[in-house]
Amino acid sequence: MQTVISTCPITPRSATLLKEEAIARFRSKTASVGIIGLGYVGLPLALLFNEEGFQVTGFDIDSTKIDMLASSRSYICRIPETEIALARDRGLQATTDFTRISEMDAIVICVPTPLTKYHEPDLSFVTETVKSIAPHIKAGQLIVLESTTYPGTTDQVVLPLLQNGNPLKLSVSRNNPQAENTFFLAFSPEREDPGNNTIARSDIPKIVGGVDGYASELATALYSSIFHRVVSVSSPTVAEMTKLLENIYRCVNIALVNELKLLCLRMEIDIWEVIAAASTKPFGFQSFYPGPGLGGHCIPVDPFYLSWKAKEFDFATRFIELAGEINMAMPYHIVEFIAEALNVRSKALRGSKVLILGVSYKKDVDDLRESPAITIIEALQKQGAFVHYNDPYFPKIGKGRHYDLQMQCVTLENLGQYDCVVIVTDHSDYDYQQIVNEAQLVIDTRNATVGICSPRIVRC
Ligand SMILES: NC(=O)c1ccc[n+]([C@@H]2O[C@H](COP(=O)([O-])OP(=O)(O)OC[C@H]3O[C@@H](n4cnc5c(N)ncnc54)[C@H](O)[C@@H]3O)[C@@H](O)[C@H]2O)c1
Predict the structure, then answer these.
(1) What local confidence, expressed as pLDDT, does residue 1 receive?
(2) Run of H or E residues at 22
(3) Separation of CA 43 and ligand 1 centre (Å)
(4) Across 284-312, average pLDDT
(5) Residues with Cβ < 8 Å from 44, sequence gap 6 or more?
(6) Chain center to CA of 412
(7) Region 152-170 average pLDDT
(8) Among 68, 110, 145, which is best to mutate for testing ligand 1, by the most ligand atoms less than 8 A from CB?
(9) Rounded CA Rg of the chain
(10) Which pTM does this prediction carry?
């Protein structure tokens, strides 16, 4: 990528004027919006702004994605190609050319924030993105980070990179009405729930936290055009922490039911029946469900951003660590249950033929990131099992950040050939009655076979 630095002379304008001009463009939907990172978060967001009439340009370093969008193709299952084609007719553009950042009124960053193999934050995608855009930013632009991260990232990492990396010597607005040549910076967490069709994205309240009041006001104006409710908090740090609290809450509660599930199995109590009964309480209880382990880009990852940051303050986040320990052990418990169930049938795991049903991290989504299915497959293979898989969303499993499986999806024919069929992800398309009818043994980690009675089912 060639870096072309803008050398246009600029007429100094006050922060107040720049803010008023930008707000007018956001409210009239005449603003140009740049979305950086066109993945599970960025592409739907780009489509949402485009639907509302904004001039949207998507930026990504992955030229395959850019080429696919250019020919109106989709790489995310739940986004049909007709939607991309419609968006393109309305003017959606996609590019790898970051010099075009200078044409934008608002820039929203939606790049990955994974963990390293040592479970520490990997902010490299964010820092690389910010370094790529810094040379091209201009006065009056609103820049928003949406990637989930630890409190302090926007202020302590993004802000200095933007200020030091732009040749126009622009600085961030700091509530100073007279300041000239300023840009505006905010954090706004993404709250999408993939596969959840019960709530429209625009109905999910949007949190924004600006570096100053001007940035908050601008971010509120921008997002109010696509979200029905925008909640402005006092700083980016509060907004960053809010997102982490939401995900830590889920992570800890899932760990709690996972641990209780292990106890219930030992006590021969049906945890699913217990949860269903408890959920009839009209207050003070929210249902969480056990499973084969955590997956996805968020719940297994985000809490560790905070526990890492907490160490800087000599603080141990014990709930997060304990929840992580319990959740991470779940796939290995499933492997133990499989071995035990085979043992009861006088079979060893070594040499057994095992079919994994569903490999995505949750039902009806095409996302394999951090999926417990990967850990289960690797552990089974290590113990000498012959493992196959079926998943309508994945014709093959190749190489990821932490695995290299090179497996092809098999059909659901002749299930009786497998010593054991393991339901890891309960996709809606599966006919569970038929699976139980045909298989020798079914290990159900999701309660997908509820209501089906058969000695061939082992629920765990
Ligand atoms: N997926 C979700 O459901 C979800 C929900 C809430 C929050 N988040 C957060 O949103 C962020 C993005 O997640 P995602 O699931 O969309 O990730 P993703 O991997 O699906 O997409 C990220 C995109 O960013 C691109 N990219 C990487 N580096 C880049 C760079 N330097 N410049 C431009 N583009 C670059 C990648 O090519 C990819 O297309 C993460 O911080 C994640 O934690 C995700």
Answers:
(1) 44
(2) helix 15-27
(3) 9
(4) 95
(5) 76, 79, 192, 201
(6) 30
(7) 97
(8) 110
(9) 25
(10) 0.93
